[in-house]
Amino acid sequence: MIDKFRADPAAALAVIPSGATLAVGGFGSSGRPDTLLDTLCDLDRRDLHVIVNNVGGDFTGIGRLLAEGRIRRLTASFPVLPEFYDEYFAGRVELELIPQGTLAERLRAGGAGIPAFFTPSGAATMLADGTFPLGYRADGEVATLMPERERREFGGREHILEYGIVADFALVKAHKSDPRGNLRFRLSARNFNPLAAMSGRHTFAEVEHLVGIGELEPDDIHLPGVFVNEVLLTSPESPKQPATAEHSS
Amino acid sequence: MTQATTRAAISGRSREHIAQRLAADLRDGFVVNLGVGIPLLIPPYIPPDVEVILHAENGVLGLGPLAPPGQEDPDLTDAGKQPITLVTGAAIVDSAMSFAVVRGGHLDVTVLGALQVSARGDLANWYVPGRNPAVGGAMDLVAGAREVWVVMEHADRAGRPKIVEECTFPLTGREVVTRVYTDLAVFHIVDGELRLIECAPGITPAAVRERTAAPYTEDLGAEG
Question: Given Cys at both, which of A77, B56, B154, B188 links B79, Cβ 3.0 to 4.6 Å?
């Protein structure tokens, strides 16, 4: 019998080693798996490559990982948190800056067996021409640049090659799950969660409600459990934060 | 810069009036994405007989007004992470589907602020070198939307023109802007050519030319 429910987050996430690549769902604090992220901090994992749309506006969630110096590289479209940039310019964390739609599609493609694709987003910009600093040295000099993208014309327009992302692990948040890991999301908290889940070779979902088998109608499942390995209940200590303004495009 | 400071101060449209002017050009049935800043002032000015579907990058099609105090839902925000409401008939999708809408040409218009726009429609609006880089969905929006309408002040805070021959700030996209709405004027960019379509009330064509650092043709009185 398939039962993906797990009671103890620390025991479940213990398989994630330091140095792992993690795809994480959420858009700011909306739909962010804070229980899983807190557990990762409590497990003292370090040197992580985190793929997530943004850090958020404070030191919870991804912000806590950052504040505790656990991130080696961030792949994101809109980091937001000023302290993230302090770390970036000081050479303590790398930033792979990716257009938001490209980030979503890279996660989806990786999970869908598409190794790479061409997109018009970012063509003719410094995110494609190999001039954007991926990382700095401690003395403030540029250490590494993001690689130049391959270019190709389709229909007379320039497109650039972007690679699918297959993450070692994914951490996502959903509204409901049944024992098979079939997920249902709620409103705009869905955002990157299904895509991050697809990208992970091993995916953890934290959910607000565990429901019995058959309680989710087949037509009402947003992401089938084939993309989900383990399901945990969100901690009451990680209450949803009220939405706050974070400048974003 | 000294040239700019010696120019007489003139008063064109306010930010609200720029938003109102742009709103008058939206057509019934348009799917529209609004960026932060002046674009977010637009919704109240959309004419009542014009139904527009507002898109937000985080997967909302059918954005309503901001949620009233006490009725915020942490699971329902816009792309600026503000608590919002939905209109009746709204749809929610994931981020990949949201950008399939954007990139696939299913957005009629994206309305964005700008640091600079070039005469042929290059846009710079994501990054001021030396500051904290963040791109969000801007590059996808300009690459995918059928029309890119820029709303901005005609000059920056130092009085320098923001419509220029070549952008000096890093580009968001090349040859993507189709219209520019400023406090002083409305421009269209057609086949890579910048055209002055309209001057704001009380603003002369000469005043616009003096404050625009790019060549353009005058097409005043054409359909706005």
Answer: B56
